[in-house]
Amino acid sequence: MLTRRRHKQTDLLETRLAAEAERLREKARSLPPGAARDEMLRKARQAETGSQMSEWLRSPGLQPPH
């Protein structure tokens, strides 16, 4: 039987996503304009959006949609 190795995350999801977005932006700065750079920036925006959504979902004042 295979056992799964689990890794306990010590940082919040939004922190990890924000750090990933910054890493991707730094990497995009080193690339010349083009498809690869655009893709890197798109992934950075997705990570940033995910970070913001996670923060919103964890907020104590979250209200269900009306």
How are the SSEs ordered, and which strands pair?
Blueprint lengths: L12 H17 L5 H24 L8
Written overview of the protein:
The protein is mostly helical and 66 residues long. Helix content is 62%, strand content 0%. It has helices at residues 13-29, 35-58.
Strand composition percent: under 5%
Helix tally equals: 2
Q: What does the largest sheet look like?
A: none
- Give the quaternary arrangement of the chains: single chain
| General form | flat
Order of helices and strands: HH
Alpha carbon gap, first and last residue: 48 Å
Helix/strand-derived category reads mainly alpha
The count of DSSP E runs of length 2 or more, i.e. the number of strands, is 0
In which range does the helix fraction lie? Answer: 55-70%
Uncertain regions spanning at least 5 consecutive residues: none
- The averaged pLDDT comes out at 89
What is the radius of gyration? Answer: 16 Å
Quick take:
The chain is mostly helical. It has two helices and no strands.
Record keyword descriptors for this entry.
66 residues, mainly alpha, 2 helices, flat
